[in-house]
C-alpha cells in the first residue's frame, strides 16, 4: 500500500477509483508530483497567456488535451466539470464538511462496503484537491468537488482531463501576470 498526503491507497478502494476514473492518477508515484522549482520558473518565463503557448528557442509548443489524457490517464470526453457548488447545504453534515484528513488516514480492517466507499471518496477528494487542482497550501480540500464524489459511479462520465488542462492554463496565466509578487510554488501545477 502506498501513502499519499497521509492517506493509504488501500486495495479495497481500488475498484471505486477505477470506476470513478482517477485510478491511474492514484498509481502515479508520489515523487512524480514533486515540484522542480527551477523547471517551473523556466516554463513560466516562456509562457504567453495570449496564445497559451510556451515560446521556446525552437518555436512554440503547448500542452494539449491528449497530453493530459496520456500522462494522467484522465478521461477527456464526457460532461464538463464545473467548480460551482450551488447546492452546498446538501453536502454538509452538522454544519461542517464531512471530510477530515485524520479520519481517513487508514481504512480499518473489516470495514463494511459503505465505509470503504467513504474512504474511496476521501481519497478521490485528496487526489482532486492536491494532485490536479491544488491551491497554495497543497493540502486543503475544496468543497467544490463534493457533488462529484457523492456518486462515484457517475464520476467517470466527466471530462476530468479537460478540467485539469483548463486549470493549468488558468494558473499559468495568473502566475505570468506582471502584478503577481509571489506565486505559489507549493501547488502541483503551479496554480492557485
Automatic annotation (TrEMBL):
It holds the Pfam family PMD. Coiled coil: none annotated. GO terms for biological process: meristem maintenance. Residues 32-83, 99-181 form the Aminotransferase-like plant mobile domain. This is Aminotransferase-like plant mobile domain-containing protein.
Amino acid at each position: 500500500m502506498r501513502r499519499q498526503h497521509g492517506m493509504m491507497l488501500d486495495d479495497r478502494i481500488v475498484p471505486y477509483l477505477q470506476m470513478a476514473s482517477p485510478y491511474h492518477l492514484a498509481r502515479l508515484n508520489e515523487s512524480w508530483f514533486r515540484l522542480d522549482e527551477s523547471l517551473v520558473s523556466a516554463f513560466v518565463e516562456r509562457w504567453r497567456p495570449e496564445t497559451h503557448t510556451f515560446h521556446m528557442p525552437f518555436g512554440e509548443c503547448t500542452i494539449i488535451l491528449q497530453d493530459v489524457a496520456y500522462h494522467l490517464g484522465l478521461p477527456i470526453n464526457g460532461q464538463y466539470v464545473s467548480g460551482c457548488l450551488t447546492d452546498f447545504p446538501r453536502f454538509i453534515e452538522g454544519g461542517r464538511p464531512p471530510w477530515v484528513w485524520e479520519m481517513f488516514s487508514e481504512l480499518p480492517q473489516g470495514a463494511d462496503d459503505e465505509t470503504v466507499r467513504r474512504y474511496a471518496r476521501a481519497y478521490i477528494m485528496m487526489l482532486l484537491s492536491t494532485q490536479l487542482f491544488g491551491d497554495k497550501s497543497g493540502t486543503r480540500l475544496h468543497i467544490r468537488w463534493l457533488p462529484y464524489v457523492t456518486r462515484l459511479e457517475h464520476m467517470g462520465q466527466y471530462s476530468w482531463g479537460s478540467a485539469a488542462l483548463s486549470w493549468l492554463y488558468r494558473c499559468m496565466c495568473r502566475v505570468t501576470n506582471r502584478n503577481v509578487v509571489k506565486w505559489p510554488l507549493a501547488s502541483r501545477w503551479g496554480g492557485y
